[in-house]
Design goal:
The protein is α+β, with helices and mostly antiparallel strands. Helix content is 38%, strand content 21%.
Length: 436
Amino acid sequence: MPAFSAPYVAGTDANRTLKDELVAVTSRRSTRRRISVTDLINPRTAYFQRTRPDIVPSPERQQAMMAGTGFHEVFGRTVSTEEFVEQLVEFEEIVGKIDIYEDLPLELKTTSSIPTDILGWRTSNVEQLAMYCTMVGVPRGRLLYYRRAEWGRPPALRAFDLEFGDLPGIRGEMMRRRDLLREALQRRDPAGLPRCEWFGRDCDYSGICRCDLAEPMARMVDAASVRILETPELADRLRQGLPGQPPPRELKLNDLVFPRKAGFRRRGEAPEEEPEPEDRMKALQRRGFEEILRDAVWYGIPGASRWVPVTLGPIRGSVLLFKDTPTILRVTGKWEMVDRRRLGEELPHYLDRLAFECALLERERGRLIVYYSGIPEDKFMVYDLWFKELPAIRGEMERRLALLEAGAPPAEVPACQPAWMQKFCAFKDTCGCAEG
């Protein structure tokens, strides 16, 4: 079945100009790609990550990173709303992504053990939060440590409030590290970069980095410039939400794209199926060019991207404006590029999500960037779509929302599209989406 929004598409173009611009950004990423807060934590490691992409983390470290990423996603959805999760911030040609930013920056760290002295145990955690506070001009922030459930130990969560007393000093050290990394990348020589925090501790680049010859890192935060206070009441409050989401589940914008699945989930009739660890490993290995392309959209062109909050009844979300146009970036495993005239039939869920975002912002033009992971040589396309009758699209969103809030029977709720996704759905035995 075609996308609901297919009849409302007034025109579709393949935007070659913007595609070429993104290609140019990704091709110069090794020397001119914008520097991030993560880069500034350990500039020497950041240098080798860019110049030696052939060196990859061990499978054990990849597994730990995936566990952390998965918990970040669950945690963010549980304790906050989409408009506050993973907030992009920009400052002095430095970019960053705060885990949750409502009134104060909040960073979550997953670990096998929770430290008693967070400043002495891993100064970089504190410095990362300090940089985010400096970027948004707020002297206070929060650090959360989540201990993974491993080796028979239960999970644990501890929360800390931090107040930084020298934001100008932090800013100065950020600028210094930024300039050192930028110069090293231009020279293709890491000699001037400071010794990183991982020196002598199983670094992936220990065979080539020569950290033993580097100067120690000048810290931007010390015990005299930060006040750290543990807040167990915050940890207790957050912990209550982590085991699961109480019914009825909070509705999100994507629930209107897959309404029948959302209806089953809200009634708690079957659990969501988690991907197998092997599948997650494979997904991680395929992320290479996708991450570069995503960075090009989010960070590569100064001032081109910003998030705009949107609401529809109880739904709170955010829309990415890329060059002032609602934009979504998606990945498909298709082996051939989809003809622009068949987007509604081949990629209906992408089209509907973009149409809904355009309707919420009352924008006739939307942009769909599709990365085709199944095509060799890292192929992607930029499609510009024009939608007509935006009030009618919004009306369908409101109708779907009303059905979900009323707990309507599945047969009365629009089927999820595309139908082939039904075989991967936890509700596939009873949803009937494959029959439309």
